[in-house]
Specification:
The chain has a four-stranded antiparallel β-sheet, with helices on one face. It has a four-stranded mixed β-sheet with strand order 9-6-5-10. It is 39% helix and 26% strand. By secondary structure, the protein is an alpha+beta fold. Helix 1 packs antiparallel against helix 2. It is built from four helices and ten strands.
Length: 170
């Protein structure tokens, strides 16, 4: 199975931001060497620092799930195992609506082999924040998180051993 990313939106944004930063750095380097104007270099350094800061604070969103030997395993961006669900056992899941920045609210499914307390609503500025929910899921250790409307996730949830957990806030 291919990697199923939790948020393709943030992965694409981080890659785009880093690519733009590298292109700007090359352009600034050429301009500095050509015109001997080093004010641009200071501006580029500040732009690079802001880019690194944005990428670092959004790294928790870059998660992916791989299915191996009947297990769905969630990994972090640096390939550390963040959660594991045995798909041959009973699977409990909760569907949350989560704010992912400037884009409209997205739905995510949290899956576990054990009954768990609700991960929502986790509010920040009146909306569920994806980073707060991801950190809570990782702290549990027995859960994974997938985009709900993805065909892979919907296929998993249609299996007979899945049971939706409802907490009355839907």
């Amino acid at each position: 199975m291919k990697k199923k990313y939790l948020s393709v939106f943030w992965l694409a944004n981080c890659i785009s931001l880093l690519t733009i930063n590298i292109a700007c750095a090359v352009a600034v380097l050429i301009a500095c060497l050509t015109y001997q104007d080093y004010v641009l270099a200071v501006c580029q350094l500040l732009f690079t620092l802001v880019t690194v800061w944005i990428v670092v604070i959004r790294l928790p969103v870059i998660r992916y799930v791989v299915e191996r030997n009947g297990h769905a395993i969630m990994y972090s961006y640096n390939k550390k195992v963040m959660g594991d669900v045995d798909l041959r056992e009973n699977v409990f899941y909760e569907v949350l609506k989560i704010n992912e920045g400037a884009i409209p609210v997205q739905q995510y499914a949290i899956l576990s082999n054990f009954k768990f307390s609700s991960f929502g609503p986790v509010r920040k500025n009146g909306k569920n924040d994806i980073v707060i929910v991801i950190r809570a899921v990782e702290a549990n250790g027995h859960c994974i998180m997938l985009p709900y409307n993805d065909p892979y996730t919907l296929g998993l949830l249609k299996r007979l051993n899945c049971c939706k957990v409802s907490y009355g806030d839907e």
